[in-house]
Each structure stands twice: as C-alpha cells, then as structure tokens.
Amino acid sequence: MKREFQSFHPYLTYENEGKYFVQPDGTPSFEGWPSVSHPTEMYDDALDLWWLGKQAFDALGEIQSMDEFDELHQYYLEAIKGARLAMAERMINNPKSFEFSNREGESFELDLDDISNSQMVDILWQFASGKGGGAEDFNYLGGCFLFACLEEIDSTIIGMCIDGNYAVSGALAAAKAYANYEAIKSGNENLQKLRSEMGYKGALEKIRRDSNGKFAAKRLAKMLWDDWQANPGRYAKQTDFVSAVLDKVDVNDNGDPVISFDTVLKKWVPEWNREARELKK
Q: Could you give the CA distance from residue 50 to residue 259 in angstroms, rounded to a whole number?
C-alpha cells in the first residue's frame, strides 16, 4: 500500500534553509501556479501551513535522509491498512453500527477506500482506547497523527493551487491531526479520551456527510467523462477534466466539492478506462 507525497516532500521541505514547500523532484511546490504567490515568498496562509508541517516533521524525531523518511511513512501506511481491515471486520460482525443513507433515504454500502487516512487514524485511536491501549500504543498513534497531518498538508497544497476554497477542509484536518498528537503527548487521560471520542464520532459523521451527494456527483462526472470521450479536444489532460468536474458538482457545508480530486483522478477515471477497454474487446 504505497502513497507518495505529491505536492511536497516533508524531508526536502524542512531540511532546506528556505521557508517554502519543495516537491519530491526538488522544485518549489507553487512554481507556475498564478493562483498562489511566489513559491519562495508565500502568503500568510501558506506560511502558517508550512509552520504546522514543520512542527509535525520535527516531532517525528531526527531523520537523516529522504529514504529514512519514506521508510517511516510506509510503516505508517501499514498501520492504516491494518485499521481498514479492522474496520471491515467490525462492519461484518456488527453491520448495524455502520448503516448509512443518503439525503433521499437510500441505503448504501460504505466504501472504505473513500475514507481518508486521517479519518482512519481517528478510528484506530478509538479502537486502541477501547482495548485499554498502553503508553507504547498511544506513542505509536502519536506518530500516525503526525504523518496524517503531513498528508493533509499535501492535499491542502493541491487545493491551494486549484481553488483556495478547496483547501479549507484539508488545512483544518491537518491542524486537527496535530492537535490529536499533542493530546497524546500531554499524557492527560481526560483530554485524550475527549479528543479520541470526538475524533471517532467526527470521522463517522464526516463519512456520512461526505457520502451525501456522491451518487449524483458520480453520475454527473460519468456524463462529463462520456462527453469527453466523444469530444477528445474538450480537455487537454485528465487533470483538466477533474478540475471541470469539481467545478460542477455540489459542495458540502465547508464549501468543498462533495468528492475529492483524488477520488475522480485515481479511482473513477481508471475505473472508466478499464470499462472502456473491456467494451472494445
């Protein structure tokens, strides 16, 4: 289960002397994006995000190389994979705990692939708390929240480049993940219990909220996709198509599209490409 940082790489960003985001290839993250200020002279919101990521990165401890960071990141992803498997098992054993319906009252099956990593860490924390997890478990979870924070910053940078409003929820999720790490680090059991319960309930509620409208959004996206296949000149790149989709779908209470950029680009577009190839056989 591999997930690369796309818009910035934490090690390259926080081991250089300047205060700006650096992509995995070593170039500034905001270079070439007119919607964002000069890549090495970020506006206040981007600089605040940089500092948040710097705190999360430093809290991971001393890291000697990009390879070492990537290896630690993979350990974190394995923990997320385990959390998804545990949630899937819980859904099988207690399905009534995970009954979902859209605005029209139509029930639907929860797709674990649509749950973000930071939401899964919230759920993992609740599982550990319920099992009476000790200090070692919670310290491990603290590291998971640090990586979740850095991943949400990655998504936020993409949002800043595409549409400022699209970045809001990612920035909030990054800040929440870091606050959860601080709660674990504090050793305050009451604070930990409060934030653990809030995070778990918030994750499940966000799953319910985000699922509302996704059916209609996917239908609309598929119509736009079919139109693109009939008129190839409409969009030059897949990313142009995805941006057009996000401009047309409904938004949630935060003003963000009810579907994510990655969901369309990495899940639906490959799915439709496979279906198109099957039809041609």
A: 25
What residues contact residue 85 under an 8 Å CB cut-off, 6+ apart? none
Helix or strand (DSSP H, E) at 107: strand 107-108
Alpha-carbon distance of 238 to 247, in angstroms, equals 14
Q: Considering Cα of 61, then 64, then 66, then 67, what sign does the dihedral take?
A: negative
Judge whether residue 9 has pLDDT over 50: yes
Say which range, 54-68, 89-103, 181-195, has the weakest mean pLDDT: 89-103
Amino acid at 95: P
**Encoded amino acid at 208, one letter:** R
DSSP state at residue 32: T
pLDDT band at 39 (very low <50, low <70, confident <90, very high): low
Q: Which contacts of 78-81 are long-range, i.e. CB under 8 A and separated by 24 or more positions?
A: 78/1, 79/124, 79/140, 79/144, 80/1, 80/117, 80/120, 80/121, 80/124, 80/144, 81/1
Question: pLDDT at residue 133 above 50?
Answer: no
Q: What is the 3-state secondary structure of 113-158?
A: HHCCHHHHHHHHHHHHHHCCCCHHHHHHHHHHHHHHHHHHHHHHHH
Q: What are phi and psi of 146, to 5 degrees?
A: -65, -45
CB 204 within 8 A of CB 90: no
Phi and psi for 62 in degrees, rounded to 5?
-70, 125
Q: For residue 34, what pLDDT band results from cuts at 50, 70 and 90?
A: low
Q: What is the dihedral of CA 158, 159, 162, 164, to 10 degrees?
A: -140
CA angle, residues 5, 11, 12, in degrees to nearest 5? 90
**Backbone φ, ψ for residue 173 (5° rounding):** -65, -40
Give the phi and the psi of residue 80 in degrees, each rounded to 5. -65, -40
Q: What is the pLDDT of residue 173?
A: 86
- Which pTM was predicted? 0.69
Q: How many residues does the chain have?
A: 281
